[in-house]
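Fold this sequence, please.
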Amino acid sequence: MTNSRASSKKLLQDVLEVVNDGVVIFDAEDRLVFCNARYRKIYAPIAKHLVPGVKCEALYRAWGELGLFDLDRGTVEAQVQARLYRHRNPDGPFELHTTERSLRIEERVTKDGFVIGTHTDITAWKRMERAFQNYEGQLSNSSRRPADRFWTMDADLRFTTLVDYPNSSIIASPNSYIGYTRWEAVGVDPDTDVDWARHREDLLAHRPFEGFCYSSDDGFGGVYRMNVSGTPVFDDDGNFAGYHGTTTRVNESDTN
């Protein structure tokens, strides 16, 4: 291998080590080529098996032997076979639930037959969603606070999920927010806007917030007035994982 090729490979590995997702690469014979530190952390219980050359099937069987598959979702063998089928026939992102974690997995096959996968830990979000659903289920219709949209942010304060409630009055597509901070999506600069600066400070300090109001373009030449509230989310180790909250469209008079 030439020095330039070796340098390029080292640079690529360094880049993959700093991404937030677990990244793994299998060759055309389904043997492990590379996995980054984040992937090793996600699959820590089988870390000793994560060596170059090990078969993907062996990794999932090792997971099953430790009793880490959620048996409410089928037998160990059934889950191993289902996972291997998705691995060899990728068809968009999917979720994998174990006794340890909930993961969002997306895999792609290269023209050389290599399989490149990204594994995102969504355990905190799943826990949050269940808690939110349980909270809503305990409220009567008359006491339930109206909201138009439910959302989640990652640790970088970028939107990861936006779901509109039935009869939501927000027209702008949730997809236009994914991957952006709220101020980026709205098109304001917290460095020059006092209210947005305070809001950003709350988020960076991981404080819960309620009743932050702002105006937003609806994408069709109109303007919405929004009221948002959010709660910080932390993982099992106490690390900040982002926010979840709700957005409600309000009349201008409601914010005066």
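Strands lie at 22-26, 32-35, 94-97, 102-109, 115-121, 149-153, 159-164, 209-217, 223-234, 240-249. Helices lie at 3-18, 37-42, 56-65, 76-88, 123-137, 182-186, 194-204.
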